[in-house]
Amino acid sequence: MRAQFPEFRLGNVLATSFTATLTERHGDAVERIPTPQRLMEWLAVNGLPVQFCTISQLERARNLRESIHTVATAAAIQDALPASAVQVINGCSAQGRAAAHLTPEGKRQWRLGAASCVEDALSVIAADAISIIAGERDGKLALCASPTCQAAFFDTSQSRTRKWCDMNTCGNRQKKARFRANRGKNYRSAG
Ligand SMILES: [Zn+2]
After folding, report:
1. Could you tell me the distance, in angstroms and rounded to a whole number, from the CA of residue 145 to the centre of ligand 1?
2. Does 1 map to a domain?
């Protein structure tokens, strides 16, 4: 029987969807790409299908993921960018041979190298991270207000006042926590 893995949290921004493959970093962390196969599935869902993935490629991917998380977090709080994490992002960006391809319908597709290497896919993700960290895209990096999450996310709301990386999970969790806290207060005042 097939093992059940945690489902993916997919957003509109490739780099932060990728960092969201590890959630609740400051709580009970959930690893959403626990196996090479699961990374391949995530890449396929995100338009970067690869034909194989080794354990060391999975490790490289997770290293890139945590480097993006570290650098994006520093950028969100306007801190100096950690040099070693920047180096990992640049290294992954330089290693790929992905080419942007325009379809007849006017959509962009990524064409990876002949062997459809994980490295090519990671270079696309690294370049995406560079573009949001460098402030080249319309939006602002921010940190999720959930204390157990604190994920760096890309806020494209008009007012740039989004508080949570994902309203359906972190936002709801915060609301429930507040509700429980308020209910606790009511009990105390009643007794
Ligand atoms: Zn969050």
Report:
1. 7
2. no
Tell me the CA–centroid distance for residue 61 and ligand 1, in Å.
Answer: 21
Q: Separation of 158 CA from ligand 1 center, angstroms?
A: 19
User: Is pTM, for the whole model, over 0.85?
Assistant: yes
Would 41 be classed as within a structural domain? Answer: yes
Q: How far apart are CA 162 and CA 169, in angstroms?
A: 14
134 CA → ligand 1 middle, Å: 22
Closest to 65 in 3D by CA, of 93, 89, 34: 89
State whether residue 148 is helix, strand or coil: coil
* Ligand 1 centroid, distance to 21 Cα (angstroms): 12
CATH number at residue 78: 1.10.3300.10
Unique residue bearing structure tokens 């009970």: 28
The whole-number pLDDT of residue 173 equals 75
Residue 68 resides in a domain: yes
Contact 143, 76 (CB under 8 A): yes
Tell how far the Cα of 150 is from the centroid of ligand 1, in angstroms: 6
| Cβ pair 151, 143 in contact under 8 A | yes
Calculate how far, in angstroms, residue 120's C-alpha sits from the geometric centre of ligand 1.
Answer: 28
Domain enclosing residue 152, as ranges: 14-190
| Assigned domain for 76 exists | yes
How remote is the CA of residue 98 from the centroid of ligand 1, in Å?
30
Give the number of domains in the chain: 1
Mean pLDDT split into 10-residue runs, the chain, 191 residues: 81 95 95 97 96 96 98 97 98 93 94 87 97 95 95 94 87 77 61 36
